[in-house]
Amino acid sequence: MQKVLIYLLIKNDFNWDKTFNDLKNRISIDTNKINEIIKRIDFEYISIISPNYPKYLTKVYKPPFELFYLGNYNLLNKKRISILGHINDNNLPYIKLLINNEYVLCFDYLLMNKNDIKVLIKNNIPSIIYFCDPAKTKEFGELLNDNICLISEYCVKPKKAEESYFNRLFFGYKEALMIIDKNIELNEFQISHINNNKINVMSLFKNNKSIKNINPIIINELETLKLVFIYKNY
Fold first, then answer.
1. What are the C-alpha distances in Å from 7 to residues 10, 42, 132, 136?
2. Distances in Å between the alpha carbon of 16 and those of 182, 183, 198, 211?
3. CA 87, chain centre distance (Å)
4. Closest CA to 120 of 83, 80, 148, 81
5. Is 151:128 a contact under the CB 8 Å cutoff?
6. What is the pLDDT of residues 64-106, one digit of tens each?
7. Residue 156: CA count within 13 A, CB half-sphere
């Protein structure tokens, strides 16, 4: 079944509705075509029907039928906190404090730069990095280690991704989001998702551009870090 899902996803350019309808209508599939496609996939993969599929992702809007990943998949089952902003000397101590409290940091690759990745590798920071274009995972090469999981709902870049899918994995659970960069600006979809799902949002800066739109729980640096360590819902 897992291979059938992958075949249908690629056949439908990862369109969720078309894939769902194909499954519902039980269309006939050539087994040889399935095997040909599977041979070309350079990722590990896990389907929504697997017991190891993250439960929190089953609750998001149109949950991905398949997750494609490289690296340590077990990181997805640990305490997670999404990070928005670039890592620098000023916020690195707070990042390390999160790590010392056994949090795994989640990043959106589109919002990262090369220095962010270097810092993650250098400091052995447990991280989950979400990709829209899976080809970008090749940039890690030999840098990939047990402290990193690269994950996407695509095994090849779709010709046309629905806008509502953007950041779906990154914002896919009602846990915590920490803004570590005062210049971060959230787009309309991100703000809507945060507010509609009542995601706990914190910021290290009182003058962050997005704060007025998302009503963060706390904006004091020390109180932020105290607060994040008492969450009970992970």
1. 5, 14, 19, 22
2. 35, 33, 25, 32
3. 17
4. 148
5. yes
6. 999 999 999 999 888 888 888 888 888 888 888 888 888 899 9
7. 15
